[in-house]
Amino acid sequence: MKQGHRSSTMVVRVVERERVGELCRAGLWVGGVWCSVRKFVAVPVKRREAGWVRVVKKVDECVGGMEMNLEGAVAVMREKVANVEQSVAGVAEEQGNRVKLLEERVMMAIGDGMKVLGEGMGLLRVEIMEKMKKLEDERLVQREIKVVPVGPSGYRRR
């Protein structure tokens, strides 16, 4: 809390905006005197905001890298599927019924692989969203409030 040399204006840092409403209704105990809050000006603290922006950029970079890795894995899986389909089609002409059974097994294996990859992507997204929510919950916004005392204190008259 800061107070001017001979001023009735005070600057108080408050963490949440809801607290400002409480201060306006209930007043503020400062230096042994109850003061009413008549006027307040909310000013964001820029240093904290700049740090938060850096954290968000870093998280975005990490998430972007993870998404690129997943996209690369999906592209490789598609190439493998295309190669298997081509080889199965070539063998199908020669082998007939045996190849149909082989094709079914290959498609089941590919389906299982894609299912596992999809579950992994879902878990990764859930984890990323939990981390983003945690960062958002930890973020504190500070505000500065000007407080004007009501009048002279009965405490000083004694």
Describe the structure.
There is one protein chain. This protein has helices spanning 17-26, 46-95, 97-138, 154-157; strands at 2-3, 10-14, 28-30, 33-36, 143-149. It is of the alpha+beta class. It folds into two domains: 2-44 and 142-157, no CATH class; 46-138. A five-stranded antiparallel beta sheet has the order 1-2-5-4-3. Helix 2 (46-95) packs antiparallel against helix 3 (97-138). The longest helix has 50 residues, at 46-95. The two termini are 26 Å apart. Residues 140-144 have low confidence and may be disordered.
List the keywords.
158 residues; 2 domains; 5 strands; 67% helix; rod-shaped
Give the structure's gist in a few sentences.
The chain has helices spanning 17-26, 46-95, 97-138, 154-157; strands at 2-3, 10-14, 28-30, 33-36, 143-149. It is of the alpha+beta class.
As a percent range, the share of strand residues is 5-15%
**Parts with pLDDT < 50 across at least 5 consecutive residues:** 140-144
Mean pLDDT: 70
Domain count, please report it.
Answer: 2
